[in-house]
Amino acid sequence: MTMNVGGKETKREDQEMAEEVKEEDKSRFDPYEYSCHILLENTTLEKANDKSFPTDAYLVWYNVDGKELLDVTRSHKKSNIFDMYYDKYKKDLKRIDWGSGTKSPSMWGYKQPEKKKRRKS
């Protein structure tokens, strides 16, 4: 059976297959959908307490297979981080704390451009 969609004839089977592909895409985990950026995954507390991280970085503790893991994640809102980890790990999310970074978030990762050499005349 065919349908007229946007002036084009398409088969109903094609539409059903497209919906199945969309459901598969949902199973993949993308932190950018939550406005988050994971800086370190499955790290130690010594590495997570680095002062060179931005001030909007959070420490996230969660359990996977009985092991407690630690991530360093940054976002403007703590609720975005909670939503992301709760959707991924559900009840295994333990706590979210402030990181110990001291860099301004707008200047974190900024590299100064190289200065061009001036010709002497």
Task: Give a verbal description of the structure.
This protein is an alpha+beta fold. The chain has a domain of 71 residues. Helices cover 26% and strands 28% of the residues. It is built from 3 helices and 6 strands, in the order ββαβαββαβ. A hairpin with a 2-residue loop joins strand 4 and strand 5. The radius of gyration is 22 Å and the shape is flat. It starts with a strand and ends in a 23-residue tail after the last strand. About 5% of the residues have low confidence.
Keyword list:
alpha+beta; flat; single chain; 121 residues
- Secondary-structure-based class equals alpha+beta
Q: Number of DSSP helices? A: 3
Strand content: 25-35%
Helical content, roughly?
Answer: 25-40%
- Characterize the overall form: flat
The CA-CA distance between the termini, in Å, is 78 Å
What order do the strands of the largest sheet run in, or round the barrel if closed?
3-5-4-6
Overall mean confidence score, pLDDT: 82
Q: Count every beta strand, where a strand is a DSSP E run of 2 or more residues.
A: 6
Largest sheet: 4 strands, antiparallel
Tell me the layout of helices and strands:
Blueprint: E1 2-5, E2 8-11, H1 12-27, E3 37-40, H2 45-48, E4 57-64, E5 67-74, H3 78-89, E6 93-98
Antiparallel strand pairs: 1-2, 3-5, 4-5, 4-6
Q: What's this model, at a glance?
A:
This protein has helices at residues 12-27, 45-48, 78-89, and strands at residues 2-5, 8-11, 37-40, 57-64, 67-74, 93-98.
